[in-house]
Amino acid sequence: MGDLPEEHCTPSLPFNITGVDFCGPFYVKNKFQRKGPLQKIYVSIFICFVTRAVHFEIISDLTSDSFRAALKRFMAQRGKILTIFTDNGRNFVGAHNELKCLFKLVSNPDNILAHYLGSEKIHWNFIPPKSAHFGGLWEAGVKTFKFHILHAVGNLKLTYEEFLTVSNQIEGILNSLPLIPLSSDAKDLQALSPAHVLVGRPISAVVEPNVTEFPDNALKRWQRVTKITQYVWFRWQRDYLNHLQQKNKWYFQKDNINIGTLVIVKEDNVPLNFWLLGRIVKVFYGKDKMIRVCLIKTAKGTFKRPITKLAILPIDN
Fold this sequence. Notes:
This protein is α+β, with helices and mostly antiparallel strands. Helix content is about 35%, strand content about 25%. The two termini are about 15 Å apart. This is Integrase catalytic domain-containing protein.
């Protein structure tokens, strides 16, 4: 396995080295009217290469002016960016023409956006074609999220305020991701997440009933917003944990799992931003002499789980 790119492992402040991606278009309306003018919007996604934190900004189009405004809003909240990485414009299969134009403008030193980046001493770099190790952050979480939010929103026309609420809640979901144990203490069941770096503590969400099984016509408008958020959370969490388990297969097979390892326990229909964490206190082998079951100590108690229900933290492995 090759070395990670320097940008992924060099200590720095949050968002000093940032990846930028785009999601959309989505269509929102100004008022609670069944028929009315629709406005096309996009979500600009900022991804910290070091902490894996994310930040969303809604933009009205993919022009230089709109992205420059989004960049200013972002830096007003998260601080100065030193380096921006984006997927190569040619790598966006079927990408929107506006997106391709934006990338061309960045490369033009006479463009107002390129001039702004230069004046702020922000370096913009394109990920080289066929360099999957550079774009690992996109592949692991963000692109999966993009798929689910596009599917969840579908043809539902939200107001701008409703869409902003969905966007902010999903940002919280991605920043709740446990990355590495907070300590090596076997009694400590907490993990460091991007939220710890950004706000100093885990991000909690208002506990609400699960409404994903209800048809849209049986829900009020704000319940539909909750349904979209819950839909994205349940499916993104499931897919992300499956992704971690694919990476972890070699880990269990080579018997590198240790007593005291902090793992994520897969459960169905868990509340928003909640990850059940536990320490392995005992392992059980199958007839093939491979680890098949673990005894896990969690905040809910101690119980057995097959390894198919466990995922090792993404940085811990």
